[in-house]
Amino acid sequence: MLAVDGVSKRFGGLMAVDSASLALEPGGIVGLIGPNGAGKTTLFSMISGFVPPSDGRIRFEGTDITAEEPHRRAQRGIGRTFQIVQPFAGLTVCENIAVGAYLRHAKRADATARAREVARRVGLGAELDRPAGGLTVAGRKRLELARALATEPKLLLLDEVLAGLNPSEIRDIIPVIRGIRDEGVTILMIEHVMQAVMNLCERVYVLAQGRMIAEGPPAAVCADPRVIEAYLGHGAAARLAAEGAAHG
Amino acid sequence: MTARDLIPIAVLTILAALLPLVVTSSPVLNFLVFMLIVALGAQGWNILGGFGGQFSFGHAAFFGTGAYVTAILQLRYGVNAWAGLVLATGAGAVVGWSIGYLSFRSGLRGSYFALVTLAFAEVFRILANAASFTGGAAGLLIKLDVSPANLQFADRAVFYWLVLALVAAVLLLTRWIQRSRFGAQLVAVRENEDAAKALGVDSLAVKLRAIALSGAVTALSGCLYAQYFLYIDANIAYGSWISVELLLAPIIGGVGTVFGPVVGALTLHGLGEVAKQFAGRIPGIDLIVFGGVLVLAVAFARGGILGLLERLRDRGRGMVARGTKEVSHAGR
User: Fold this and answer.
1) A155 interfaces chain B, CB cutoff of 8 Å
2) Does B185 touch chain A (CB under 8 A)?
3) Predicted pLDDT at B322
4) Do B196 and A99 touch (CB under 8 A)?
5) Residue B99 covered by a domain
6) Closest-CA residue in chain A for B179?
7) What's the domain count of chain B?
8) Average pLDDT of A19-32?
9) Distance between CA atoms of A36 and A168, rounded to whole angstroms?
10) Do B184 and A99 touch (CB under 8 A)?
11) What's the maximum distance between 2 C-alpha atoms anywhere in chain B?
12) For chain B, what percent of residues have pLDDT higher than 70?
């Protein structure tokens, strides 16, 4: 459903993303991992339309959307969350989510009803009338998720929705994400919490220094020497293997 | 919109409509009409600045356009004043949309947008002051011809009711905006434009709709000004005084609220009049009062008078709630 084909982004002399490609089939959860500064969020911004690629093409359900505005992509069914949460601070939780729901429901009553339903699903049912600015970090992450979900996306891009949460909060939100997938929404998630990646993703892509260096099931990818080196530095995989052999 | 949304607007409008039956002094009616004209223009500003968060420092561009369009149509083309009113309002929408298109499309936000609107208003002022078509520095005098067909009334109260009806109509319009998808998207753009875009909001289209509406309402108020005083020149119609008044009123009253602009205009002009009564010999005393009120509002009441009232009410409720709790504890 989504095909990213040789997409690059140059910021001055820095190659943030260097001809990265990925392909998503409908359904399922795919992870996008990589060390800090690998260009994951930049790639997300290109898919959702906030950053124009310097090179390459992006297709969604067969249509070339490389040059489309973000709101058009949202209308097509690409939802996203922001790594740095972006609540409408002056509005209540319900009003926040309703902005997303208005995309598919023109009437206030319908949009509000939809917003309440989504809020309950992500566990914000009790906070509907609170100002969004007063939510905890975990609450704001849920709000990001709820707003994106309220647009009824076909493809959901989650940018570190688990970052900053404690283990019990993570345990609470993982079933929510799984539930979204079970309804047929395709999910592409950037995540650093490896436990969650292992738990949720059927497939992961690894981005390092702007390049896609590996792809496959999470367990296989984590054992890939190129991936280990990307995280731990050049020669790390060999050293680890040698140490393993010595201890063995 | 529900009955709860409409009742306060209806009640206040009816009460205000009864006023001329009690007060017949023409200086007071004069004051009320002028105050309502400013309130109407401020309501226009509030649609864009209050709900959309796009602060304009140059709403004189729309006020003046409304005033000049109706005056020129009547004087040079013999158009009926009522038709002039409609066309002036339309012209305000067109000018608003155009200024919006030029500035929003190039991504101007915040203080840059404010400065560009200020520049537009100044350009219009200088052009209107120079061109003979607009009467130049001598201004334009609308012919005195008292007749309801010419939108001129022998009784000031009739004009008062007309302006009041339009203010009430814009109160309804604003309430509708607040309760509609358009309003939700406009507020979302104010709060966080990128997040709004990610949720499928076409922020450019939403802002253009807002500035066109805003320009239309403010142009309507300019048109009424011209029609009431029957004289305009560039420094009145496009002067920075009106830009300042139109943004002060909502900020003092409560920015982004339905009643804020009206409350603000009433407060400012009320205080201004009082100051003139007591210190009329000091020129510009009302402006000094405006400045003082603005400082107070910015320092102590960020949500304006309505925001302050709401906070006091919440605090009152909190105290009541705590009080009952204490009582119940004591009972135990």
Assistant:
1) no
2) yes
3) 59
4) yes
5) yes
6) A108
7) 1
8) 95
9) 24
10) yes
11) 84
12) 95
Q: Which DSSP category does A83 fall into?
A: S
B302 touches A at CB < 8 Å: no
Q: Which pLDDT does position A243 carry in this prediction?
A: 84
Q: By residue range, what is the domain housing residue B176?
A: 3-238
Rounded CA gap, B291 and B288, in Å? 5
H runs (alpha helix) in chain B: 3-22, 26-46, 60-77, 81-105, 110-130, 156-179, 181-191, 193-198, 203-229, 234-237, 240-253, 260-279, 285-300, 304-331
Nearest residue to A94 (alpha-carbon basis) of A111, A78, A115, A74: A115
Convert the pLDDT of each residue in A60-95 to its tens digit. 999 999 999 999 999 999 999 999 999 999 899 999
Q: Do A100 and B200 touch (CB under 8 A)?
A: yes
| Range of weakest confidence among A97-106, A202-211, B266-275 | B266-275
- Give residue B277's pLDDT: 84
Domain parsing of chain A, residue ranges = 2-217
Dist CA A63 CA A49 (whole Å): 14
Contact B198 A88 (CB under 8 A): no
**CA B190 to CA A91: how far, in whole Å?**
11
In angstroms, the CA A186 to CA B231 distance is 65
Query: What six digits make up the tokens of B82?
Result: 């009522």
Between the alpha carbon of residue A158 and those of residues A141, A155, A186, A217, B193, the distances in Å are 10, 10, 11, 19, 19
Comparing B317 with B33, the larger pLDDT belongs to: B33
Characterize B169-189 residue by residue with b for buried, 16 or more Cβ atoms within 10 angstroms of its Cβ, and e for exposed: bbbbebbebbebbbbbbbbbb
CA distance B140 to chain A (A): 45
**In this predicted model, what pLDDT tens digit does every residue of A185-232 receive, in sequence order?**
999 999 988 888 998 999 999 999 999 999 999 999 988 999 988 888
B181/A106 Cβ within 8 A: yes
Select the more confidently predicted residue: B297 or B11: B11
Contact A79 B192 (CB under 8 A): no
Indicate if the pLDDT at residue B328 is higher than 60. Answer: no
What letter represents residue A227's amino acid? V
**Class in CATH terms, A2-217:** alpha beta
Residue B284 covered by a domain:
no
The complex's ipTM?
0.92
B1 touches chain A (CB under 8 A): no
Interface test with A, best of B187, B190, B191, B207 (most A CBs within 10 A): B191
CB A2 within 8 A of CB A155: yes
Give a yes or no: residue B264 inside a domain.
no
Q: In whole angstroms, how far apart are CA B84 and each of A120, B76, B233, B242?
A: 53, 12, 18, 21
Structure tokens at A212: 């896609």
Q: What is the pLDDT of residue A245?
A: 79
In a domain, B274, yes or no: no
Q: Which pLDDT tens digit goes with each residue over B178-222? A: 999 999 999 999 999 999 999 999 999 999 999 999 999 999 999
